[in-house]
Amino acid sequence: MSPEFVTMFKEAAGMFLFLAAELTVLFLVISYLVGVLQEFLTPEKIQSILSSRNGKGYVIAALLGSITPFCSCSTIPFLKGLLRARAGFGPMMVFLFASPLLNPVIIGLFVVTFGIQVAVFYFAVALAVSVMAGYVLEKLGFERYVREEAYQMADAGSSCGSSGGDTAPKAKPASSCGTQAAPATPEPAPAASSCCGAKEDVNVEVNGCGEAVMTVKEESRWVRIWHSTWKDFKQVLPYLMLGILIGSFIYGFIPTDLIAKYAGEGMWYAIPVAAVIGIPLYIRAEAVIPLSAALVKKGMAMGSVMALIIGSAGASLTEVILLKSIFKNQMIAAFLTVILGMAIGAGYMYTYLFG
Questions:
Q1: Cα(240)–Cα(27) distance, rounded to whole angstroms?
Q2: Pick the residue with more confidence: 5 or 257?
Q3: Which end of the chain is more exposed for a tag (fewer CB within 10 A), N or C?
Q4: Closest to 209 measured CA to CA, from 186, 238, 176
Q5: Does any domain span residue 295?
Q6: In a domain, 27, yes or no
Q7: Residue 343: band (very low, low, confident or very high) from pLDDT cuts 50, 70, 90
Q8: Is residue 103 one of the residues assigned to a domain?
Q9: How far apart are CA 256 and CA 249, in angstroms?
């Protein structure tokens, strides 16, 4: 191998190890803290708050969206719940726009990767546009483009945060002996797991009547939050590592002049192209941000990076397909227009203010 290749490989490997360690710790810490917050602000409470139709609902919806770590696709099931609860259409749309864009993990990655100024700018733009878009869409009567079937209740089933029937086994009352006596030495029951990944220990004991009584011992709140955090991390890990790997490769091997030529400050078309590419690209923001960091180091304009991140985090082809079950085509078009407009506008605004 040539000395030049060895040098580039060392730079790429060093960048990969640094970003992998830093972003892993950041993700786990922020996700755990959000999990603690969500112990007190459950999905049911959020749904109840957004069901209010007063004027404060728009800002509250945006702030609630900023503390719920949903990606663009996982927001859809929650949106269906809001529709069935007859939530205000404007606040509901604000939540749809803000939740994936203001994900606390994304904001944390912005701060660490690009600095506090970029993170504050991104947060302010996403918050303001989400609120304005929700307000305007409601005033223009876009609620009529929600499909009627979206308001219908789904079949009852067990899911996280639902108020369905109890699924944990209950002990038989020991008031009468001699009915359905259980074996004196029952087999131990396996550990039960909840839909959110938290495990419960099931103990089987024999009471004085000779009946098997099952008792459930739940994990502590803090352990349950950690299990949920770790589960989320394992789901995101492939995307995070992919973004870091691609970004590290770009940092080590792609010539700076090549990126600066096609996506540098002087290229007027770079921002809209980056915004449009971001939607079908559908790389999670956790992967786009480390990738974008490498692009910036190689000469890509920060405005283009801003447009790329908003486009990929705010919408995706998968999300559009899922939204088809809720919205008519006119509403889908309005949704994509808001995301693309936000991405392009943020890119040009950042270039104007800080470029």
A1: 10
A2: 5
A3: N
A4: 176
A5: yes
A6: no
A7: very high
A8: yes
A9: 12
Check residues 161 and 208 and name the one with the higher pLDDT: 208
Beta bridge partners of 203: 215
Strand order through the sheet with 212-218: 192-193, 199-206, 212-218
Between 183 and 123, where is the model more confident? 123
What is the amino acid identity at position 195? Answer: C
Task: Please identify which residue in the block is written with the tokens 């786009």.
Answer: 288
Backbone angles phi, psi at 146, to 5 degrees: -85, 135
From the list 83, 100, 30, 88, the residue with the least C-alpha distance to 59 is 88
CB-CB contact of 10 with 250 (8 Å)? no
Highest average pLDDT, of 7-11, 77-81, 120-124, 169-173, comes from 120-124
Token pair of 147, please? 């499909």
DSSP 133-166: HHHHHHHTTGGGGB-GGGGSPPPP---TT-----
129 pLDDT band, cuts 50/70/90, is: very high
Total domains in the chain come to 1
DSSP class of 181: P
Confidence check: pLDDT of 247 > 50? yes
Tokens standing for residue 129: 């546009």
Measuring CA to CA, which residue among 63, 66, 67, 119 is closest to residue 305? 119
Of 313, 310, 294, 314, which Cα lies nearest the Cα of 343?
Answer: 310
Instruction: Select from 228, 234, 286 the least CA-distant residue to 42.
Output: 228
Contact indicator for 344, 307 with CB cutoff of 8 Å: yes
- Beta bridge partners, 204, equal 214
- Specify if 336 maps to a domain: yes
Domain span at residue 305?
A: 41-151+254-354
